[in-house]
Amino acid sequence: MGASKRIRTDGDLLILKKTLEASNQRAREVLRALVDEQGFMQRLKFEPLGCDPLDLSDAQNFAEQIDQQATYSTGVVALAYLFRVHPDKEWDFAPGAHGSGHDIASTDGSVAAEVFAAVKPDNNNKLNKDILKVAAFAGPHRYVFFSSPARAASEWDDAGVRIVSLGIVA
Fold this sequence. Notes:
Elements: E1 5-7, H1 10-34, H2 40-46, E2 50-52, E3 55-60, H3 62-85, E4 91-93, E5 104-106, E6 111-117, H4 126-135, E7 141-147, E8 154-158, E9 161-165
Parallel strand pairs: 6-7, 7-9
Antiparallel strand pairs: 1-4, 2-3, 4-5, 5-6, 8-9
Helix pairs in contact: 1-3
């Protein structure tokens, strides 16, 4: 994903959801076309048969699309949560963006969140790394959202960061 997306309204959030649905549909079509091919796993890994889930014109390998799709879907659910908890804020949405920014941040600088999807939240120490990253944020509201089949939906606090397990996000 390139630049962040500015999310101001429920309508903006709906556009994100619809874009993710479109990339999901495209992925199903690719899989149907490849299912009987010899060497289809290599093609999925190495050929640009997929796309950035939020930019269907940005060709990527299918393995990368799977990872991004899960993270972006988690991010959309996290945004819906933040809309409820922090109404009347605008958001910059850039999950997985490169650099020192946060995956989700309010434009007024008061909220920062990291977002990820993983088989287990402790894989590669991801949860702890994100907690540390957000704990360093100077604003008053800090979050880590994640989706994982290994942890039921729940919330708790750690190091001044609100941790939100979303369970499995479809």
